[in-house]
């Protein structure tokens, strides 16, 4: 289940200018129309596991969650206090995973998850995203991966896995920073940190398939928790890091884990 936001900051101020700017920016898109055309028919409700898991409590209906957050922000023209915003943060981070299942059920094609994501962006701009995500974002900024692994540790882990697996499959390698590979393979940072065997298993498949592949020593984490938090700047930087690695290595494709 999603981690609820916890406001640990002493600061009780809200930068309403930033909130208004974001609302104005979104207004040009489909958001206002979606909020206006929602018929409150409830057809999307049964598609949401939060709603089903809470005995069909109306407060977990997808449309209600959006109206209580982005809808209210529009109604109040962004003029909200921190307590209100904190309640909104509890909803957008704690009561919705932005899975988009409800969007598939709405006859009007209203994309609830995209609006929830916009609500997260607003909460994140006021430092109201959950602490776990804050820590991960800091790790992306400092090291380029959510687990704060150094490039040296990552390369050593790959070398260790190659050595162990080579006993089983002669000639197996985990090529790092190889130029001109057909596939640049990237992973979830939890793999080298906690499940390095996953990398070894991927290497076995590439080896058996005689694939021309490599892993970058930097830009190998394909997760993006900044996106979940609503931190667009760090999200973009993380995606760019991976694409830059592919360009630097002249890779034809980027492969991602799972
Ligand atoms: S996007 Fe959110 S509201 Fe919609 S089904 Fe998924 S968890 Fe429920
Ligand atoms: S989002 Fe769509 S399905 Fe859900 S209540 Fe509104 S109109 Fe009905």
Written account of the structure:
The protein is mainly α and about 260 residues long. The protein folds into two domains: about 15-130, Orthogonal Bundle (Fumarate Reductase Iron-sulfur Protein, Chain B, domain 2), CATH 1.10.1060; about 145-255, no CATH class. About 55% of the residues lie in helices and about 5% in strands. The protein contains 13 helices and three strands. It has helices spanning about 15-25, 30-35, 50-55, 60-75, 80-95, 100-105, 110-125, 130-145, 150-165, 190-195, 195-210, 225-230, 230-250; strands spanning about 185, 215, 255. The chain has a three-stranded parallel beta sheet with strand order 2-1-3, with helices on one face. The longest helix has 18 residues, at about 230-250. The two termini are about 20 Å apart. The model has no long low-confidence stretch (mean pLDDT about 95).
Helicity level: 40-55%
CATH class of the largest domain, named: Mainly Alpha
How many helical stretches?
13
Distance between the termini: 20 Å
Order of helices and strands: HHHHHHHHHEHHEHHE
CATH 2nd-level architecture of the largest domain? Orthogonal Bundle
Strand order of the largest sheet: 2-1-3
Q: Uncertain spans, ≥5 residues at pLDDT below 50?
A: none
Count of beta strands: 3
Largest sheet: 3 strands, parallel
| Rg value | 22 Å
> What count of structural domains?
2
Structural class: mainly alpha
Please tell me what the overall shape is: elongated
Hetero groups:
iron/sulfur cluster
Overall mean confidence score, pLDDT: 93
Q: Strand percentage, roughly?
A: under 5%
> What is the CATH T-level topology of the largest domain?
Fumarate Reductase Iron-sulfur Protein, Chain B, domain 2
């Amino acid at each position: 289940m999603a981690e609820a936001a916890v406001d640990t900051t002493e600061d009780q101020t809200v930068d309403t200018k930033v909130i208004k700017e974001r609302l104005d920016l979104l207004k040009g898109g489909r958001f206002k129309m979606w909020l206006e055309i929602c018929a409150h028919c409830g057809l999307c409700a049964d598609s949401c596991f939060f709603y089903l898991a809470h005995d069909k409590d109306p407060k977990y209906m997808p449309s209600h969650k959006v109206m209580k957050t982005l809808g209210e922000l529009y109604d109040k023209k962004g003029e909200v206090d921190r307590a209100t915003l904190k309640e909104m943060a509890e909803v957008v981070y704690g009561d919705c995973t932005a899975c988009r299942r409800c969007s598939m059920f709405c006859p009007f094609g209203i994309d609830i998850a995209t609006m929830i994501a916009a609500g997260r962006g607003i909460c994140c701009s006021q430092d109201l995203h959950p602490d776990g995500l804050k820590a991960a974002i800091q790790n992306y900024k400092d090291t380029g991966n959510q687990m704060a692994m150094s490039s040296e540790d990552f390369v050593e882990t790959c070398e260790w896995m190659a050595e162990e697996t080579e006993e089983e499959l002669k000639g197996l390698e985990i090529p790092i920073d190889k130029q001109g590979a057909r596939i640049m393979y990237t992973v979830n940072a939890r793999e080298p940190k906690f499940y390095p065997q996953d990398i070894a298993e991927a290497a076995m498949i590439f080896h058996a398939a005689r694939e021309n592949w490599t892993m970058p020593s930097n830009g190998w984490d394909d997760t993006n928790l900044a996106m979940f938090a609503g931190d667009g700047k760090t999200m973009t930087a993380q995606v760019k890091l991976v694409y830059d690695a592919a360009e630097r290595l002249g890779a034809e494709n980027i492969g991602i884990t799972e």
